[in-house]
């Protein structure tokens, strides 16, 4: 075959006749002349099309310019000072006609017409047309819109043509339409726009014809040189000879280009590789060939008589470049079927089966990161083509994900069994096995290599492990055993036992090498799964320890949540419910980009930061701003602390967050989000609302403000917060996920669900089969503080009104049935009111809230914050806040847009006793004044 191709390559064509040489290159009887003729026709058609296109474009440009200029002129005159007043004057024409003509000439338009709302003209270039009805559409202009149209009308100074006019309304100071203004242009003489371009188009066409003639001549001469003067018929005959030889030989031939695509394939190559008929022109990676064969065909390296497996055939492959002297060239590949030769040797069939089994093992073992599942995959692959029964025993520490140790060799856990389990009655799945030192299993672990027991009837160590069960196994037909240690990175992970029964040939020494290869592939997959199990367990433990353990005590919301970690690695999703002063509650939903320990640790730092900022009672946007600063700072620390070999920016942190504060007194939820999906509100009647919360960039960019939105929530509404893992994964995009979320939240009885039922319905509808990302979901149903539990009144800026404030407080507490807390509450309230009057600024207000606790709030217009200090014995004041701190469960200050609020919270009679119940007031004051205190 190769000799014949060489002869074809070295053959020379007969010399061309003198008549062919004398024939003109551009003669119509030559291919070059026919190509040139076709090019000439195409150039002429293109020139005609260009002229027509230029004419049409010139017309369109003229109309477009007329529309733009007419609108500008009409709007400028309509908005000119005094036009609306002139329309209301006794004689609008006398005032507006000269101004309209002057504006027309200055703007370069053909007419400017002012009319009343009935369309009667007040101005026109020809005075005879004044007072007549305007020709055009004015109804949209009377509704406040601008009308642009092409219409006819009375004669104009510019003569006939296409009239383009715009009509705009004239409004007075109150926005009422008092008249209309129309301006227009007559579009004429379009040819003057395209005629100057005609010589250019014709000149380009002529130059193109000249270049086409020159190019055709040069290409045809080059082709004649490359084909050695062969005529098309001679080339066709030479091609037919090559095709006949190529498809007649019993050897596969393939020619590939430098890009890996098949240029030529004969019938024998298609048969050997199982290729379809339309394979020519396709890339070798698209042919469905075995990976090793596809890699050989695609690589540029030479190959000489190497044997590869392709489907059920062993093929001898030779490969050479098509043009060895060229830098970039394709390859020619020849294939010979050596399968029959391997069968003649007597062992090729077994080698082929083992090779295919190893290839299948590489595909089927390690499909998951589950240790026991990977062990079962090893057992399933080996049965029945290598063994009749396979058992896999792993160290107990490996199953748990811990590092294996030599101390755990004697205690292994049966993790997988495949085949007829009646043949293996010794140990069952999940049973802990202790091997004695003389068993082949223990010898394999100690020696670090496989142990062969060709005849188990002679294996004394195997029988002494459990004589009764070994006898039963021999009676059932167990014949031969290969025990193979599973080792990865030099560390033993367990054992694989391969058994054959009476119906199969006994294992031979050659089978041990194959078992070692099979065990090595499985051991690496098991070790990867073990490492993942350990890291996943650590990360899940860390993240669950960072997430809320239970619901905090608060009266504003009824809350339920769900958190589902991903299977690929736990990420940084988190949520929180944080009680705030004044009966308010903060809701947080966040997501740190990435998975693993780094994401979980970052999540914990952000969650702690949110708690700290919430404790300071900062506004919603300010909390997000400080979290953004924290993330930027974390990135800078990661970059500065990276190892020298680490890639720059590898530790960058990205996070999204939604932060909301719900006030049960006002029924308002203030929300802001940083790159996070917006919330969904389920109203009490079951309708769904997606509030318009301004979207801000994710954390880590720095320098961007965060905007807030106030959402009014009716009592019984449910606020749904979630992370993007709920609505987006590999199987669906975010739009599909959001539609599915709306369907899960809607439906009959949606407004009557409890938050727990809502979480159950959403997770049941949207949870994917495989979790590639964490899912966090929070459902909060709102409650409102009843007006009967709120008392609020203004306080004049005069300290003499403090007794009246105490009296009012006493009346409110009596109405609530809280007489036993009256004294303490009056004391706290009087101290807070006195401080607000003396050191604050008006207005001063008092508010009492009754709920789980009793909250006293005093607000004023000052932003100065009081602080607890130690008063000296000689000081007349300075002990008020100390008394408040002693009698209240907790107290603090929060700032508002109008000043500040000082609040104090007391436990009611049905709660645990407060700290102030144990110490008399006088004793507290004495201790506070004691310099030794």
From TrEMBL:
InterPro entries: Bact_Sigma-Reg (IPR052016), GAF (IPR003018), GAF-like_dom_sf (IPR029016), HATPase_C_sf (IPR036890), HATPase_dom (IPR003594), PAS (IPR000014), PAS-like_dom_sf (IPR035965), PAS_4 (IPR013656). Residues 238-278 form the PAS domain. The chain crosses the membrane at residues 36-58, 200-219. Keywords: ATP-binding, Cell membrane, Hydrolase, Kinase, Membrane, Nucleotide-binding, Phosphoprotein, Transferase, Transmembrane, Transmembrane helix, Two-component regulatory system. It is found in: Cell membrane. The keyword Kinase applies. Residues 1-10 have a biased composition (Basic residues). It comes from the Bacteria. It is a multi-pass membrane protein. Residues 1-22 are annotated as: Disordered. This is SpoIIE family protein phosphatase/ATP-binding protein. It comes from Streptomyces levis.
